[in-house]
Amino acid sequence: MAPSQLKQLKASLREHGVLGPQKSKKQKKATSKDAQKRLQRNAALEGIRQRFNPFEVKAPARRDKFEVASAKNSKPVVGRPGVTRGLGEERRRETLLKEMQSRNKVGGLLDRRFGENDPTMTPEERAAERFARQNERKLKKTSVFNLEDDSEEEIALTHGGRSLGLGDRLKDDFEEDDLSSPQSEDGDFETQDDRPRKRLRIEDGEALVEGEDDAIPERKKTKNEVMKEIIAKSKMYKAERQAAKADDDDLRAELDKGMSEFYEALRGHKPPEKQLPSPPTTEPEPHMNPARAAMLAGKPREDAEKEYEANLRQLRLEARSKPSVRTKTDEEKAAEEAARLEELERKRIRRMKGEAESSEDEDEGEADADADVVPGPDEDFGEDDAEAFGLVAPAPPPPPRKELDVEDEDEFVLEDDLIASDSEAEMASEQGLEESDSEDESDDDGDDDFINGLVLPEGSKPAAQTKTSEKSSTSKNLAYTFPCPQSHTEFLDVLKDTKLTDLPTIVQRIRALYHKGLAPGNQENLDTFAGVLTQQAVYLADTERDVPFPVLESLLRHLHSMAKGSSEAVGTAFKHHLETIADQRPLQLSTGDLIILTGVSTIFPTSDHFHTVVTPAMLTLGRYLGQSAVQSLRDLGVGAYCSSLALQYQKLSHRYVPEVVTYINNALAILSPSRLPETDQDGNPWSFPVRLPTKSLRVQPSSVKVPEKLAFKDLLMEDGGEQDTNARALALLNGFIRLSAQTAELWKQKSAFPEIVSPLIHAVGHIASQSTKLPKATVKLAASTLETLQALQKTSIESRLPLLLHNHRPLAIKTSIPAFIENYNPDRHYDPDKQRAEISKLKAEYKKERKGAMRELRKDANFMAREQLREKKEKDDAYDRKFKRLVAEIQGEEGREKKEYEKEKRKRQGRF
Amino acid sequence: MDSYDSLIAAPMTVAQRKHLLKQLQSPETISKLRRPEILMDFFTDSLDMGDLGLAVPALQGLFHLITTRNLDYPAFYARLYALLDKDLLHSKYRSRVLRHLDIFLAPQNHLPAATIASFIKRLSRLCLFAPPSAIVAIVPFIYNLLKTYPTTTFMIHRPPHPPYTKFKHNLGNDPFNPAEPNPQLTNAIDSSLWELETLRSHYHPTVASIARIISEQFTKQQYNLEDFLDHGYASLLESDLKKKDKKPPVVEYKIPKRIFSAGHVDVETENHDETNTLLELWDFGC
């Protein structure tokens, strides 16, 4: 930092010779008389004034017109050229002049400042050391009375009102003095150095004396003092308390005095006289309310109240003891169950609508849902529009997947105390059989019991079932432990020597034995086992001609219960089977495939918008119904079962399956005793092709009695002898007629229902008209179905209205938020190209710097020239003075000599 | 080149005709002929034979002749309309016919809205009984038609009162006459596309969501038809099975007591609220 203005002024005054060593009166007079010098002095003074006038301002020629509006006010309004110039000059004198003077000179100053070139010292240490040195130097001040010097340097650091370094120094001095120079005590003032020390010592002594009486705040209190203070304070508080208490007592006494009157007023008769004078009894224990006590303890009332409030709140928040979970009443249980079912139904409906299952899933599902369900038609989905709908096989966007609500399962397990420790499970598995014996008909509990079987042996239910189906009990010699089969062949090995009816028991035992809680790898084993079980179900249905359905049923239910634990594994198993169907026999479904598809319908929620298992399964059904070519009655049976399954799948969601309608129509056309006319009664053509088999399967006129229901085994599992072909065909015809009724019932809400049902009406009506060729029961059934269909169609037509699909709010024109530039300046050029902008910014900066540097250089050159001129002048002056002095000297000498000569001459002349 | 002259005049079997048509259908071959007009009758005859396999290539050739040779074929659109019969969506010619339709019904041909409406209605009626792959292609096609011919959008949005409808009551009756061969006279323009509305609840989620574009706002200019053709059960099934599961599949909460046996148990516990259509119809012998 440049020195202060005053110092600068002084320096420049001295430099110009205005200020200088004191001059005698004669000299002053001489200078004042010398006009030349006075002129010079005045000029110099003017220059200095101009240079140092801090108030010299350079205002812009024209003021800003609208200074409020103009955005850039970065520049100061007025410049102070005098100040800046002075500063520049000063700086130059410090740097440039020094350089100039030391030019062409060898040697120079050695920087002897302490620690300047010592890298081991930190700047702090350096500063501290320098400060110490400086103080030392200061103490060696040449003159005590030199006030000017003193005033400048007396910037000492202080702490707590006492200077920092000085105290120690003083002490040191003191001791030093004591030890080294006893003679100074005797008033020996030989050296100058002693003087300040002494003076300081005296000062110090005085300070010490003063410290006794008025330096209390600075001084550290002694222990004694502190104790005294505390005692005094406590006494004061005590007195205050007593005073307050006395106040209280007074108040109380006063109140007591009024008491009798109060009683009187209350009772309405005069109190006994003696009560009046009774002195106010002081309470044995003075009782104060906490707020008052706190107040007396020195806290202000607000604080005390705050604290009280806080305490109160805390108390309120404190956990109270709660009763343990109590046994719920039946009603409560029922209500809970109802609530749970309601929740499940709510979730199912959400899934049906294709929404995410819960709000948490929503975010995640949203992106998928966007892609899958509502493809924003506006956006360009890359190059493939169909891909937006997930139509392309390679990498379609997966739709929102639903989370399995495992917690339900857990809930179950917890509810029924079913988390078994290892030993329990072991025990349980052994208990299995006894239990199954005892609980024979306990299968009313339905799935609860079945899930118990997850951990407990499942003997209770499946074993009981096998029993009910065939009374011969499970083989007594059935093994209790089985290896967990990891492939279907292994499983067949396990089952080699067992009866088919024992299968559920075996499966149940395996599941109990390899329960996931029992060993770390069990879950994986069971997952694989789930796949094996599906294979087994297919295998059984495909190979065994008279497989008992309860066995298949229990297998499926086992799979279901396993799916609750690890849905992924079971889902994968089913998907794998569906893949096999798709690859090998999409149009020739086997019995096992049908069993699996039935299993899908019970295990997985078929109403979901998308389900990884159900959707492919449904597609498999649709594919069969849509594309298979009917060649035999079995094909028709499979078709009937598939249609039935498809309807079962859509039972809740009522989704439309076009293939079912076409298939039923085709089947009716195939089975009808006579050819179905190509156009319906109104002459309208069919909307779908009818494919008749190569070999006619038409029902022949006969009077066979057929059961009301279609027999799965008869129709699907046997290839059928010739003898009952007609009966089977008739049964199928009945079945399809019923199916058409079911179909109509399922989709009666559809807006296109009249169109959907019209081919069915046509076909069923045709069959109803064949009274001569068909048994009465069938014709009756067809007629009643026809009636229903027509009634449904009629109501549907009556109730439907033209479509109103586009009640959308008009779309707003797309807008985008304009990109505003903060503090926009129309003068500035905003380059959108960032790189170019940066470059131009750099260029401008360079230009500015260059200009500045040039200006500085120019000024430097000016300064140097000025200095050189000054130096030259000084040199010339010095030379001139010297010359004059010499001339004068010589002249004087000559004159003197001349005088001497003259004198001598005169003397001689006089003498002569 | 005029060897075709005698070829097309000679009597031939269907297979021969098909082969010949295959050779002759492309515009390049036709333009190479010195007198392409001689093919006119051949194409017309092929188109009239009612076989899709013949009609499709004949149609293409005919269209080329109409556009380049100024052939006057008065009932072309009626013929085209007749092509959209019950077999179309189930046949392998579906994609090709759709591609042709896309060209024939293009706005450059300045067709009356009634004709377009007939095509739309006929297609959507066929869709009602079509396999998913056909629906997937037809719906974007209809979307494009609706978008290019805004007059036809009354078929998806019609306030149910007289300025918009012909009658005050009985609005559920479909005015469309499917038996009418002339697309100009089918009254399809007064009808509504209930069929497509129903398809919004198609069992397959992809199909359903594609069908839903009809009821969304028509913000997309055109769907690229080519992307929607050539799908099938197999590709749909494959894409469904290949879908990566992020979450395990949901499992039905309740394990049913009976799957194959319509048990007495159900009757007892009286939670037989939903009818089991499977068990109503089938007897599993247990």
Give the proportion of residues in helices of chain A. Answer: 55-70%
- Cα distance, first to last residue of chain A? 82 Å
Task: Walk across the major sheet of chain A and give the strand order.
Answer: 1-2
The average pLDDT value of chain A, as a whole number, equals 73
How far from one another are the termini of chain B? 74 Å
DSSP helical segment count of chain A:
31
Cα radius of gyration of chain B in angstroms? 24 Å
Structural class of chain B: mainly alpha
Low-confidence stretches of chain B: 264-274
Major sheet details of chain B: none
Number of helices of chain B: 14
Structural class of chain A: mainly alpha
Query: In total, how many beta strands of chain A?
Result: 3
Q: Cα-atom Rg of chain A, whole angstroms?
A: 58 Å
> Outline of chain A, from the CA principal axes?
elongated
Give unreliable regions of chain A as ranges: 166-200, 204-216, 274-283, 358-382, 393-474
Give the overall pLDDT of chain B as a whole number: 81
**Oligomer status:** heterodimer
> Mind summarizing the main beta sheet of chain A?
2 strands, antiparallel
Number of domains of chain B: 2
The fraction of residues in strands of chain A falls at under 5%
Function (chain A): Involved in nucleolar processing of pre-18S ribosomal RNA. Has a role in the nuclear export of 40S pre-ribosomal subunit to the cytoplasm.
Family (chain A): Belongs to the NOP14 family.
InterPro entries (chain A): Nop14
Organism (chain A): Capronia coronata CBS 617.96
